[in-house]
Amino acid sequence: MKIELSSEQKIIKDQFKEFTDKEIIPYAKQNDYEETVSKELICKVAEKGYLGSMIPKEYGGMGLDMVSIGILNEEIGRGCSSVRSLLTVHGMVALAILRWGDKKKRDYWLPKMAKGEVIGAFALTEPEVGSDAKSVKTNALLENNQYVLNGTKKWTTMGQIADIFLVFAQCDGKPTAFLVERSTPGFSIQPIKGLLGARASMIAELKFEDCHVPEDSIIGTVGTGLTHVALSSLDYGRYTIACGCVGLGQACLEASIRYSRKRKQFGAPLRQNQLIQKMITEMFVDIKAARLLCYNAGYLKDVGDPDSIMETWNAKYFASKIVNKISSDTVQIHGANGCCSDYPVERYFRDARINEIIEGTTQMHEVLIATNAFRNY
Amino acid sequence: MEEIKGKIKVFLSRFFRKHELGDDENIFELGFVNSLFAMQLIMFLEKEFSIRVENKDMDLNNFKTINSTVSFIESKMNLVEAK
């Protein structure tokens, strides 16, 4: 057994780190405050090819292996959770088209998505339907070679700016995935503001009112929208979120170490206080453990192992839980300064909270992981 | 055929530990598998037998029993060889 990044992965990690330090971190506070990621920043991400990180080279993407994709999401997540969320949802749509779309759709959309000319968004959740995804109420009715969509989607990340949407609807009572263009008549988008964390994720509510889409808009087949299309996209989403949590945890750790060195109380730096050392130790070890879970999940994805799916659940469960503890301890170490936007750690704390809800709540993870454990032993 | 069947049985045994699965028993009607199983099964088949499960293959009848899965794999492998 060898647990080590390849030399290529080490090089690319340095490149991701440099980009995050130079282009993401200086704007993260502004993104959070303005609840938007600027077009300029998205262009910079696109210019680096990162929006095509998960798309094969034959379509103009970077064709990265899954471990490298994990590293990218870790580094970007270290800088700004909202920019990381862009990579996540865009990739979820691109991979659905790649895996379940026909050749025409792959050839048309993937080169545009790889360049960032087209942004994708994933529309599963509804006002009344969250974890119980099979019960989506959005409906698709076949009429004269077109599907007519009716329903509402909510909390769609990047919905405010996306050009294409992977929309899940009941087709004769069977969950089915549709690719819907932003400009389709009968489709309207309402921005949602005032989020707790990842505030620049440009979340939206989507309304479909007699929205006609071509019959060949289906991704996959009628009835496989959830079991195959959504679940494989959510698997990628979970993986990149887990990696983003590792990055966010790393940002917390580095902020805590910097502050503990500088801040003096009772005539000595905080770092000399053993209760502070305990918090730093827990952060340090938890981040390493979460990173290893992510690398393991990424490796299993690269070799096509079916266990990669459960290992991704494990990684996302652990990483999203520890980053909440870590960000809370980071605020604690910073004291009153941690409760003020003069320091980034209050943002880290708010951003961390979102991760235990998206792409499967912690409780849904516990149900699945426990079921798997009982099955195996 | 027996080699393919053997590999599929080993994979499925992870999900049916307390049940001896018959070759023609409907996997999906037994209630042992959840929605993740379908994805895991496809990943397994694609990796183990170097095939790609296409949209047109997404028929539950292809995967509902051990024997139907073996037939499906054989037809896919024959297609690959024919090319």
In short:
The complex is a heterodimer of chains A (377) and B (83). Chain A has helices at residues 7-34, 39-47, 66-79, 81-100, 103-115, 225-262, 274-302, 307-334, 345-354, 362-376, and strands at residues 120-123, 139-143, 146-156, 164-171, 174-181, 187-191, 204-214, 218-219, 264-265, 268-269.
Please explain how this structure is put together:
The complex is a heterodimer of chains A (about 375) and B (about 80). Chain A folds into three domains: about 5-120, Acyl-CoA dehydrogenase/oxidase, N-terminal domain (Butyryl-Coa Dehydrogenase, subunit A, domain 1), CATH 1.10.540; about 120-220, Butyryl-CoA Dehydrogenase, subunit A, domain 2 (Beta Barrel), CATH 2.40.110.10; about 225-375, Butyryl-CoA Dehydrogenase, subunit A, domain 3 (Up-down Bundle). Chain A is built from ten helices and ten strands. With about 375 residues, chain A is an alpha+beta fold. In chain A, strands 1, 2, 3, 4, 5, 6, 7 and 8 form an eight-stranded mixed sheet that branches. In chain A, α1 packs parallel to α3, α3 (about 65-80) packs antiparallel against α4 and α6 (about 225-260) packs antiparallel against α7. Chain A starts with 6 loop residues before the first helix and ends with a helix. Chain A is globular, with a radius of gyration of 21 Å. Chain B is about 55% helix and about 0% strand. Chain B contains three helices and no strands. The model of chain B has no long low-confidence stretch (mean pLDDT about 85). The longest helix of chain B is centred in the C-terminal third of the chain and has 17 residues, at about 65-80. Chain B is globular. Chain B has about 80 residues and is mainly alpha-helical. Chain B has a single domain, classed as Non-ribosomal Peptide Synthetase Peptidyl Carrier Protein, Chain A (Orthogonal Bundle), CATH 1.10.1200.10. The chains are: A alpha+beta (about 375), B mainly alpha (about 80).
